[in-house]
Amino acid sequence: xxxxxxxxxxxxxxxxxxxxxxxxxxxxxxxxxxxxxxxxxxxxxxxxxxxxxxxxxxxxxxxxxxxxxxxxxxxxxxxxxxxxxxxxxxxxxxxxxxxxxxxxxxxxxxxxxxxxxxxxxxxxxxxxxxxxxxxxxxxxxxxxxxxxxxxxxxxxxxxxxxxxxxxxxxxxxxxxxxxxxxxxxxxxxxxxxxxxxxxxxxxxxxxxxxxxxxxxxxxxxxxxxxxxxxxxxxxxxxxxxxxxxxxxxxxxxxxxxxxxxxxxxxxxxxxxxxxxxxxxxxxxxxxxxxxxxxx
Length: 295
Description:
Elements: E1 3-7, H1 18-27, E2 32-35, H2 44-49, E3 56-67, E4 70-77, H3 84-110, H4 117-124, H5 142-151, H6 182-191, E5 195-198, H7 212-220, E6 225-229, H8 235-247, E7 251-254, H9 274-283, E8 290-291
Helix pairs in contact: 4-5
């Protein structure tokens, strides 16, 4: 059984539509795939409608958080998307994404980059004449800005834009956005019947990571698991995280963090143990995995 619990579609910063993503997951030989777009559930209905037979969809989202000035992401699985408190927080984060991206464009232009908001909006799929927002289901983010930079030849790849010179936390063109306190995120996820997993906790290439003591505190607050097998964790880091998972009784997951052509990772490149997946589904009460019936 092959299980990939972290993927993105065009509902946030992936390049595959939700329908294309589930079809690609089936073609890649996956049995279970989770759609975890940033701060939005906008792609879930399309993914369900297109779900091929033999593939199960886990609905989820990747929530933007910040702890003591350090950015981190919390994967939320099988929560009730209509639970009002968590829905309101997702809306606040999404509403802040458009002005934040516009601010990054302005900073880049001040740095001499001939980038335009119109092109970034086009890459993100924001309809012409609209500024984005919750009604559009748009989750524009740094990868869309980075893609425009690649097109202009400013950087060679999307990942090359995530440096202190450009879009990394604290970088010259970085702009902050509304983000959840991770302890609040865990409370909200659990309150909506979901399961909370700390995404790529030691992905140091992305910038500063929270200390191990914070992982212990999050575990005490109800964190269910940590994502260990991930392309941005080397073998030594994975071994270290497995030790932390054992110490704090956390579920150990693995996933591709697939973004289509925007990143080099492949669907199913890293996977989650079926027993861990089973425990996630047992703990969840807000939603159930969706079996494919041939959409």
